[in-house]
């Protein structure tokens, strides 16, 4: 029988005895409360140092009764979108740490407009937050904001996309290059090494929603070039704000390219082509997409999406708050950069995906 | 800006005021400590009920100073095996909850001998544990033990394999039937729908190490029968305690079956055939296996394993202790049965697998 019992904590009573002060005095020193004479404080701190005292940070934080305001800057989104899962994670973590007097404020911005991020970040800065969780936008606008945070010593964490040149406390999200390479391998298998594929891109204001999607494409194209150099990658750009309906845009493409039977999208909107395929009853098309949102999962069940790659949005949100809590409230060290797993889901295993 | 702030806790001072007693009395009632008059207790409990008081369970548990003994019954294993990752998870959780005076005792048994489990469980029972985490063995020997636990009101959790007829507090592990189906789909793709495959089984004392492996095979065979009914599944049984070396056993098979180029094993010992393939420099063979242990990962990197299916052994261990802690110490309700995700790892994504 093996016993696992991390070193027993020394009791406050023992510290008081060694320092020759009362238990109350030790308690006040430990929790940083006033009404301790300088002499008593020096004695207690001497004993703490001597025994290498590891404080019970939960008890300290509970005793201090301090209130903390965390902020998050998040893209605007519908209720059933990818970002709502991130938001659920943020909220669940705040609820979990309920005992520690945390409040979280979420401010939204338009992903397709830089000035919207700038405005949101300006607003948040005025609130003097204890910590900020940021879904970065363009490099410049994010850098401008973060420079102010660094100056004011406000810790910040990047969620979803990373900008390695800006030194955030940490990052939670997927490695988009590796993710794109993995997607390429899966599409190659699912398509039986087919040499005609379509890459479906969703755009608004002439831009892709996120840097993550752009980098996934780079990883994807590298892998295909290395392993299937003859492969023709045709692009289908679906305008989210165009005059033509999605249906029209898809119809045009599929009429013009009847030989293409394999496709991929790096956005969470795979259900848009997948639902079109279902309506047309096209069973000969193999589609790989991203993210476990409800409409995607329906298409996975019905077979119009072959595989989804998932990236734990709930956990990204949850872990950002947890890490901020550990850093700000419990004063724990934070390991840098948490890359999310790159997970493959099919009709056979998706029900056990853990958010 | 959206504010997330779970309802503010009512203060003990307010409860004391409403009940007309001292703060110390409220504190004693909340933490179940003695020296409270019946009259005061009734008053305080009345107020608590009226305001639907949700106790701060962390503070209560910290204040109670009670010690808890958890036990675990685990298969014997080498340092680099699958089970050592489960054990790390158990230990890390105990360390995490260090402030709450938990000790964990681990007792080992031989997976290939029922009487070994019976002996281990008998020993553990004598220790009067506050909770037990069990990797079940044969149905009968596990049932006999669990009947005693139920009688003595000792909570127990199943880890790795489930026996649904025995009502454990909860279960942490993979759904083996679904896992086998998923493995079949992946092998079908990786082999390009090849109709000659080998199923490699590892045995000792004429038995497979676990029920999980047996059920994975059932799920696998069902899927193949549905989707590729012409497929010939040849079995290669490797005797872990036989007279012939693994190398000899593998050599014999591959000489006799030169046309077979695709294989699967449901054990974590995929590295045994994979290292053989590397030594023979056979690059035309596609192997699917289970579990992210070091020697498997090396073969994944070198290409002699195409895919590994992972099942989060560390998390299984960690979550079992966490759930037992929540149940025994924090008195929280436990949702039943936690099926682990069925995760696919290849050379492209394995580095971001989160234990």
CATH top level assignment of the largest domain in chain A: Alpha Beta
Indicate the radius of gyration of chain A in whole angstroms: 26 Å
- The amount of beta strand of chain A, in percent, is 15-25%
Number of helices of chain A: 13
The CATH fourth-level homologous superfamily of the largest domain in chain A:
Response regulator
> How many domains, in number, for the residues of chain A?
3
Distance between termini of chain A?
35 Å
Q: Largest protein interface?
A: A-B, 48 and 48 residues
By DSSP, the count of extended strands of chain A is: 14
* CATH fold field value of the largest domain in chain A: Rossmann fold
Reading the helices and strands of chain A in chain order gives: EHHHHEHEHEHEEHEEHEHEHEHEHEE
Principal-axis shape of chain A equals elongated
By oligomeric state, this entry counts as homodimer
Low-confidence stretches of chain A: none
Explain how this protein is built.
- The structure is a homodimer of 355-residue chains.
- Chain A has 355 residues and is an alpha/beta fold.
- Chain A folds into 3 domains: 12-55, 434 Repressor (Amino-terminal Domain) (Orthogonal Bundle); 68-173 and 313-340, 3-Layer(aba) Sandwich (Rossmann fold); 176-310, Response regulator (Rossmann fold), CATH 3.40.50.
- In chain A, 43% of the residues lie in helices and 19% in strands.
- Chain A starts with a strand and ends in a 10-residue tail after the last strand.
- The mean pLDDT of chain A is 91.
Layout of helices and strands:
The structure is a homodimer of 355-residue chains.
Chain A lengths: L1 E3 L7 H8 L3 H8 L7 H13 L6 H8 L3 E8 L6 H15 L5 E8 L4 H12 L5 E4 L4 H13 L4 E4 L11 E3 L2 H15 L5 E9 L2 E2 L2 H17 L4 E8 L6 H11 L5 E4 L5 H9 L6 E5 L3 H9 L4 E4 L2 H16 L9 E2 L3 E3 L10
Parallel strand pairs in A: 2-3, 2-4, 4-5, 5-6, 6-13, 7-9, 7-10, 10-11, 11-12
Antiparallel strand pairs in A: 7-8, 12-14
Helix pairs in contact in A: 1-2, 1-3, 5-13, 6-7, 8-9, 11-12
């Amino acid at each position: 029988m093996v016993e696992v019992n991390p070193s027993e904590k020394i009791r406050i009573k023992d510290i008081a005895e060694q320092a020759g002060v009362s238990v109350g005095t030790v308690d006040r020193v430990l929790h940083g409360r006033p009404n301790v004479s300088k002499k008593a404080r020096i004695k207690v701190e001497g004993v703490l140092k001597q025994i290498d005292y590891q404080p019970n940070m939960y008890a300290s934080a509970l005793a201090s009764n301090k209130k903390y305001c965390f902020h998050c800057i998040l893209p605007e989104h519908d209720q059933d979108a990818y970002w709502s899962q991130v938001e659920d994670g943020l909220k669940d973590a705040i609820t979990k740490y309920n005992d520690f007097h945390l409040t979280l404020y979420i401010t939204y911005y338009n992903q397709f407009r830089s000035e919207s991020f700038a405005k949101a970040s300006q607003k948040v800065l005025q609130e003097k937050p204890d910590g900020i969780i940021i879904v970065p936008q363009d490099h410049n606008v994010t850098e401008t904001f973060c420079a102010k945070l660094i100056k004011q010593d406000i810790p910040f964490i990047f969620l979803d996309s990373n900008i390695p040149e800006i030194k955030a406390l940490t990052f939670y999200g997927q490695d988009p290059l590796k993710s794109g390479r993995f997607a390429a391998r899966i599409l190659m298998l699912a398509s039986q090494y087919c040499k005609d594929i379509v890459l479906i891109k969703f755009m608004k204001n002439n831009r892709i929603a996120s840097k993550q999607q752009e980098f996934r494409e780079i990883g994807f194209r590298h892998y295909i070039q290395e392993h299937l150099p003859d492969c023709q990658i045709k692009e289908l750009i679906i305008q989210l704000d165009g005059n033509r309906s999605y249906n029209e845009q898809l119809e045009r493409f599929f009429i013009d390219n009847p030989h293409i039977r394999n496709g991929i999208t790096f956005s969470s909107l795979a259900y848009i082509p997948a639902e079109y395929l279902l309506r047309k009853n096209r069973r000969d098309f193999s589609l790989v997409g991203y993210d476990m949102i409800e409409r995607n999962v329906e298409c996975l069940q019905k077979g119009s999406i072959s595989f989804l790659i998932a990236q734990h949005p709930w956990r990204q949100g949850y872990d950002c708050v947890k890490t901020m809590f550990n850093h700000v409230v419990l004063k724990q060290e934070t390991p840098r950069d948490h890359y999310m797993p790159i997970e493959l889901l099919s009709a056979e295993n998706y029900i056990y995906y853990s958010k």
